[in-house]
């Protein structure tokens, strides 16, 4: 359980919610809660065990039964049936039925959710099953139904227009207080179908400052703190009251380019920019672990990682020569110019992940070294998709998780087949798009995955910078917390306080 504050400064930095209930297991993370709608903040609700999906996934990404205990597909591959697990109730006491599940999925599909990328013609209840009818074969459908935006809420959670008016899920914890953007509080739901949790309550507090989160871990004001900055991770390793953990993730630190802009509209320019990046040095200096991304997908991602690909290299001199060959020559102040246009660009990033502004500052120096002037704009993460949509984005630095849909083809469909808010911009490869859609429809062998990886490696619609590790500090007053590589759970329903 939480101890009294040992650091007086902390009380001035934390939201009131973080200091509330000494019996609750407190979680601190940098991610703000946008709203009660799973389409907007379902990743947090899934991790906090207040909401669930029809399909689940284990720590290796293998699909498991969730609120659906079994599923099947018709011979023509156009009709899927998901059997609803019996004996499940929502937090308002109503039963989970196929009607309730179908209603939730239909509302999700009507919004900007993962289901808009699937060839779905209808979702309806049929007896104890949800029947999803497709316009074409789509083998990735079960994986899509594991993504957080397909979380199932009770009928009473939705207004007549589909807006979410209450967070009423089926998870091990029942929400008692939700105050976006900072606070979620929940108590144990004793009627949980999987068996009651061991801790009486859980609290989530969004704390954007990495230093504040680290202080919460050190003082005992949060039993679980995730996304530590490298310096805090190293320091907390010597604090007796906590255990620090680091887990490799299928998440990649990426530099998004506007490939339609005059700065990056040729693969030669994009490769020249890649050559200007010392990934090894950056990973060691900023992330403080050897995670330089020599290609898009990390080794843990099975067939998606191709050992045969030549790793993305660092060679500033070769970068300058490549830009010169593309017509970009130094001006009087050393900044590259072409036909009177300076190579001057804005780099968008956001401070929710503490490593991003630091990485942006390092990239600014790398790029200036080869004649590119960069202005860093550290702002809200929502600015990246907004500027993608209005066409004004030039560069953006962010982290992308290829496991939100346990099958990475789901993320590829959203981001690169042919474009997406968090993926390709101004880049279109018809063959790549067709191959992604074929894999989503039929599944794919490792050689097909490697071929897709090779195309991204060759054309560089985005530049991989580093492969991620999730870092966390866990109080020694609790046990059972799990840092899930696929970031679906904090393991709260199995956590318990140590007496």
Automatic annotation (TrEMBL):
It holds the Pfam family SBP_bac_5. One of its GO terms (biological process) is peptide transport. One of its GO terms (cellular component) is ATP-binding cassette (ABC) transporter complex. It comes from the Bacteria. Residues 1-20 form the signal peptide. Keywords: Signal. InterPro entries: Peptide/Ni-bd, SBP_5, SBP_5_dom. The keyword RNA-binding does not apply. It is found in: Periplasm. GO terms for molecular function: peptide transmembrane transporter activity. Residues 64-420 form the Solute-binding protein family domain. Belongs to the bacterial solute-binding protein 5 family. This is ABC transporter substrate-binding protein. It comes from Pseudotabrizicola alkalilacus. The lineage of its organism: Bacteria, Pseudomonadati, Pseudomonadota, Alphaproteobacteria, Rhodobacterales.
């Amino acid at each position: 359980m939480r101890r009294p504050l040992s650091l007086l400064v902390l009380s001035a930095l934390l939201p009131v919610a973080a200091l509330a209930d000494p019996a609750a297991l407190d979680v601190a993370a940098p991610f703000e809660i946008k709203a009660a709608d799973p389409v907007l903040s379902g990743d947090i609700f899934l991790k906090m065990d207040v909401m669930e999906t029809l399909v689940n996934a284990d720590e290796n990404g293998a699909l498991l039964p969730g609120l659906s205990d079994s599923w099947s597909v018709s011979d023509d591959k156009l009709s899927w049936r998901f059997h609803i697990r019996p004996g499940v109730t929502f937090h308002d006491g109503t039963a989970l039925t196929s009607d309730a599940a179908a209603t939730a999925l239909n509302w999700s599909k009507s919004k900007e959710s993962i289901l808009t990328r699937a060839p779905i013609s209808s979702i309806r209840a049929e007896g104890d099953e949800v029947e999803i009818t497709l316009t074409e074969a789509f083998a990735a459908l079960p994986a899509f139904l594991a993504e957080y935006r397909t979380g199932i809420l009770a009928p009473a959670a939705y207004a007549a227009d589909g807006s979410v008016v209450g967070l009423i899920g089926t998870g091990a914890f029942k929400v008692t207080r939700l105050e976006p953007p900072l606070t979620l509080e929940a108590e144990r739901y004793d009627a949980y179908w999987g068996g009651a949790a061991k801790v009486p309550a859980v609290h989530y507090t969004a704390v954007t400052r990495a230093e504040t989160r680290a202080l919460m871990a050190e003082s005992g004001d949060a039993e679980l703190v995730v996304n530590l900055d490298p310096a805090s991770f190293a320091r907390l390793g010597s604090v007796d009251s906590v255990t620090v953990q680091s887990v490799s993730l299928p998440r990649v630190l990426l530099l998004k380019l506007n490939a339609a802009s005059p700065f990056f509209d040729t693969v030669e320019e994009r490769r020249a920019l890649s050559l200007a990046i010392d990934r090894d040095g950056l990973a060691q200096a900023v992330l403080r672990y050897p995670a330089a991304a020599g290609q898009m997908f990390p080794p843990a991602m099975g067939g998606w990682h191709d050992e045969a690909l030549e790793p993305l290299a660092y060679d500033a001199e070769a970068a300058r020569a490549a830009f010169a060959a593309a017509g970009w020559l130094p001006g009087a102040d050393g900044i590259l110019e072409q036909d009177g246009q300076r190579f001057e660009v804005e780099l968008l990033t956001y401070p929710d992940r503490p490593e991003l502004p630091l990485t942006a500052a390092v990239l600014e120096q790398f790029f200036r070294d080869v004649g590119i002037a960069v202005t860093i704009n550290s702002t809200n993460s929502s600015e990246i998709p907004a500027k993608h949509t209005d066409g004004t984005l030039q560069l953006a630095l962010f982290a992308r998780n290829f496991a939100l849909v346990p099958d990475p083809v789901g993320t590829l469909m959203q981001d690169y087949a042919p474009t997406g808010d968090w993926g390709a911009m101004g880049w279109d490869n018809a063959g790549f798009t067709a191959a992604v859609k074929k894999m989503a429809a039929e599944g794919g062998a490792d050689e097909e995955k490697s071929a897709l990886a090779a195309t991204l490696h060759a054309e560089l619609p985005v530049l991989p910078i580093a492969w991620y590790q999730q870092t966390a500090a866990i109080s020694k007053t609790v046990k059972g917390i799990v840092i899930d590589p696929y970031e679906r759970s904090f393991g709260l329903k199995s956590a318990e306080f140590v007496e």
